[in-house]
């Protein structure tokens, strides 16, 4: 999600106040629909979209956020805002006529055309030109065909991609008068589950939960070798799932962790890369997982709580791998932890912010109890309001209550609540607009049958080899990630490659979605477009590409763990207990071995021949044959034991200190 917490300096004060009012109104509408009176999809989704589009055109002026609108700008944006109100109100106010008509009225078609245009323009402003171009490409593809509006485009398409083509009337009605276009599943998820948890994250942020989690991570890990880097990993695991954005995670936790990592001895690029890798992991960390868990639940019809539960172990594997790589780097460079005087005390941190844990406990408990995600989000927001209010009242009473102080306390609480309502709405604009454009893509794919055609192409290119198919998915996710946010990249990719993975390669539906979702994160840490890496570089004062390479190195679990999901289904789908334990054990062993081979160090320096032998051992753990897995596990176990024994022997020879070793043997 795009972070929009920074005030627009060129916006007039009346405009900022209007943005605040509309943002608060949107959040209150969402809370009403989540906890008081649920609304039908043709009321909830269009009204949500109308609010979001109005906010988008107010927040993002036509000529850029750093420029004044002027008369021309207001003429353009005023028209777009009016059209946004029309788009949001049209379907709810005409639902009876639309539901009972056989053919759409001309006025419905024209409103549909207007809605498509303003959604694409909103995507250009809030998400980026790439999203708009992709949406426009799919619209053009729907028109391309002998019976379409643009028949000449059919000559440019390979035979397998050809289709009959569709008229403007058919495309406009498909996109805006049913549940298969703009008002389809992606926007439905954004307008319900995603928004309510974005709002929950906003309430956590304004009440100080972010600082609490960062301080807690430092108190827990700061004294260890490479303490700030390990604290970054722990803090990002908590904050990333709440913020919903790897980039937002980098700039919040990274503002604290990156300078301390540099102070400890990490190179600037290394510090920025570690933070980027850790922040990216926040998107795959339960219980929120950005917007991914909600979308997966809708697409797969698997209960949200089940997706959260099966995602815990893979997320632990990812953060464990980053943590291990950070530890190895700290040991190799002879780093120490921070002193006790430089760190917050765990007892003091807990005493100050323990109440922030209560909403998270309530959230998990309600999910396990079977409440819907929307209702859970509603009650989680109420719980954090109650916890923050109780804490403030306790401090107020302890300090000696006065009437004037009580009035000031109420005013401050009211201001914080309004701030959170506005912030939640602002932070939801980009993801909602992206989901609206994703709805266009979903609608065109359903209309033209493109998904099945793309699957056929994927099978042809991979030759039926699942490993090559997964590499193609990885490359596609990287390319899509250059122009799309993670959520949008996941939606587009699962629509295109999901049928092939499940129907042709036999990958279970849930695992296919998890693999695509994990791979959709790679644009945050993979050069040349490593957005989280670039954000880390800005804070660290390092070169963006060098930082991105470091982020790519520390985030290797992002590529390996999905392979374990595919070839060892038990870690996701379950099975006989011995097989589940075995699959989990070899996953841990494989990631440890991979980290050791990558760094040339585990208990101590590893010789080249040991690193070379670890590679086939890791590959064997992925092999879908139990005997091969056992051989790989034994090979890795022997090599790691040899490394441990040799390191212990060398320590004994130099009086218990490994500092006398050199790396010449590499």
Q: Can you tell me about this structure?
A:
Helix 8 (185-206) packs antiparallel against helix 18 (403-448) and helix 14 (304-332) packs parallel to helix 27. The chain has 29 helices and no strands. The protein has 666 residues and is mainly α. The chain has a domain at 576-666.
Helix content: over 70%
The number of helical runs is 29
Uncertain runs are: 1-7, 656-666
**In angstroms, what separates the terminal alpha carbons?**
43 Å
| Class of secondary structure makeup | mainly alpha
Secondary structure: number of strands: 0
Radius of gyration, in Å, reads 26 Å
* Dominant shape: globular
What is the strand content? Answer: under 5%
Order of helices and strands: HHHHHHHHHHHHHHHHHHHHHHHHHHHHH
The major sheet is characterized as: none
Mean pLDDT: 81
Main traits of this protein?
666 residues, mainly alpha, 29 helices, 0% strand, globular
Short recap of the structure:
The protein has a domain at 576-666. Helices cover 74% and strands 0% of the residues. It has 29 helices and no strands.
What's the structural blueprint in terms of helices and strands?
Blueprint: H1 13-35, H2 41-59, H3 70-93, H4 95-100, H5 106-126, H6 129-143, H7 168-176, H8 185-206, H9 209-221, H10 227-243, H11 246-264, H12 268-281, H13 292-300, H14 304-332, H15 346-353, H16 357-369, H17 373-398, H18 403-448, H19 450-462, H20 466-481, H21 486-504, H22 509-519, H23 531-540, H24 544-554, H25 557-567, H26 570-573, H27 577-599, H28 608-622, H29 626-653
């Amino acid at each position: 999600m795009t972070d929009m917490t920074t005030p627009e300096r060129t916006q007039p004060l009346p405009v900022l106040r209007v943005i605040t009012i509309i943002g608060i109104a949107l959040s209150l509408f969402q809370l009403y629909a989540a906890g008081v009176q649920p609304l039908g999809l043709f009321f909830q989704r269009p009204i949500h979209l109308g609010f979001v589009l109005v906010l988008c055109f107010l927040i993002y002026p036509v000529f850029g956020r750093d420029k004044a609108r002027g008369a021309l700008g207001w003429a353009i944006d005023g028209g777009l805002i009016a059209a946004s109100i029309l788009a949001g109100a049209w379907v709810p106010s005409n639902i009876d006529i639309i539901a009972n008509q056989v053919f759409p009225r001309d006025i419905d078609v024209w409103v549909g055309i207007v809605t498509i245009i303003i959604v694409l323009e909103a995507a250009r402003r809030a998400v980026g030109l790439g999203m708009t171009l992709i949406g426009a490409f799919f619209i053009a593809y729907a028109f391309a065909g002998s019976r379409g509006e643009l028949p000449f485009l059919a000559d440019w398409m390979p035979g397998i991609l050809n289709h009959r083509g569709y008229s403007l009337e058919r495309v406009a009605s498909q996109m805006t008068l049913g549940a298969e276009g703009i008002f389809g599943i992606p926007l439905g998820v954004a307008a319900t589950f995603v928004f309510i948890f974005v709002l929950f994250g906003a309430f956590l942020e304004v009440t100080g939960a972010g600082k609490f989690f960062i301080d807690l991570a430092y108190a827990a890990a700061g004294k260890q070798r490479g303490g700030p880097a390990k604290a970054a990993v722990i803090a990002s695991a908590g904050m990333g799932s709440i913020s919903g954005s790897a980039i937002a995670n980098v700039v919040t936790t990274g503002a604290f962790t990156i300078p301390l990592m540099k102070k400890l001895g990490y190179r600037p690029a290394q510090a920025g890369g570690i933070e980027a890798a850790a922040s990216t992991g926040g998107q795959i960390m339960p219980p929120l997982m950005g917007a991914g868990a909600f979308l997966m639940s809708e697409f797969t019809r698997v209960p949200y709580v089940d997706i959260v539960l099966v995602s815990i172990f893979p997320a632990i594997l990812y953060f464990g791998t980053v943590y291990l790589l950070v530890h190895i780097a700290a040991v190799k460079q002879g780093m120490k932890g921070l002193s006790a005087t430089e760190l917050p005390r765990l007892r003091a941190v807990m005493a100050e912010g323990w109440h922030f844990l209560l909403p998270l406990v309530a959230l998990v408990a309600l999910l396990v109890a079977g409440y819907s995600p929307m209702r859970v989000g509603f009650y989680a927001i109420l719980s954090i309001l109650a916890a923050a209010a109780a804490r403030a009242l306790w401090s107020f009473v302890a300090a000696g209550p006065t009437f004037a102080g009580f009035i000031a306390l109420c005013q401050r609480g009211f201001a914080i609540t309004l701030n959170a309502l506005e912030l939640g709405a602002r932070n939801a604009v980009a993801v909602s607009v992206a989901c609206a454009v994703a709805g266009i893509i979903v609608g065109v794919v359903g209309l033209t049958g493109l998904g099945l055609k793309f699957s056929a192409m994927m099978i042809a290119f991979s030759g039926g080899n699942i490993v090559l198919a997964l590499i193609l998915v990885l490359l596609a996710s990287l390319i899509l990630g250059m122009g799309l946010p993670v959520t949008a990249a996941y939606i587009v990719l699962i629509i295109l490659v999901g049928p092939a993975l499940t129907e042709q390669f036999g990958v279970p539906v849930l695992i296919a979605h998890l693999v695509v979702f994990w791979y959709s994160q790679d644009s945050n840490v993979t050069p040349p477009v490593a957005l989280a890496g670039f954000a880390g570089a800005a804070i660290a004062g390092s070169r963006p590409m060098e930082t991105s390479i470091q982020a790519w190195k520390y985030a290797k679990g992002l590529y390996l763990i999905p392979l374990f999901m595919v070839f060892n289904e038990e870690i996701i789908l379950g099975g006989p207990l011995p097989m589940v334990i075995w699959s989990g054990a070899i996953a841990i062993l494989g990631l440890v071995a991979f980290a050791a081979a990558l760094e040339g160090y585990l208990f101590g320096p590893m010789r080249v021949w040991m690193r070379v032998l670890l590679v086939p051992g890791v590959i064997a753990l992925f092999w879908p044959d139990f005997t091969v897995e056992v051989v790989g596990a034994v090979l890795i176990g022997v090599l790691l034991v040899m490394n441990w024994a040799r390191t212990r022997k060398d320590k004994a020879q130099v009086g218990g200190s490994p500092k006398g070793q050199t790396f010449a043997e590499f």
